[in-house]
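To assess whether ligand presence alters the predicted conformation, the chain was also submitted together with zinc ion. Input:
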Amino acid sequence: MVVKIGKADDNDFVVNDPHVSRYHARLTRESDGCLLLEDLGSTNGTYVNGGQIVKKRIAPTDIVKLGDSYTLHVPEVLKFNNDYSAEFALLKNVYTKYMEQKVRIQSSNQFKTRLFQSLPFALPGIIGVMIGFFGKGSPSLLGVSLFITVCAPTIGIYLGAKQSAKIPQQLQDLANQFKIDYVCPKCGTFLGEIPWESLANRKQCPLSSCKAKWVSED
Ligand SMILES: [Zn+2]
């Protein structure tokens, strides 16, 4: 694990301080677990517990200064590089569930809409056949038959339209919750309706102020 520290945007840990060099220092976790801090020829130097260093093994509790004013919190640096892959991995399930629910809402409403619209069309047909069979030549029965034939489809269309109107609201509620849940675990920025796998390929948050590692490369 290596963390590049400095003012330039392409560092792993970006420090916005006028006395910090563009590429100021480098923190390495060595294979034995120890932390090695190296100054990269910075203008204002790197200090550990008050003494200037070029290369020194440090503990997370040591007081590290970059230049004379900026205090580098080592645990913060470690957390930064520790990455957010564990938290990011949980988002896979968030995305999968969202897509499943979205499809379920859309398909169930489509089914209900079709049912509501087609059922009343079918009924007058059946009733019409029955009236035709049992009550031949009766004017009153013919009137009832006509009434049903005209009204039923109208009711069907009305109910179908009413059912369709529920879709946007349900989808809106789902989308609102998704916007809260599907965010960068570090900076909280909504990740959009982008499949989790595509985000995982990016490996880190695109925001330069965040750069949380989503996928660990260690
Ligand atoms: Zn982020």
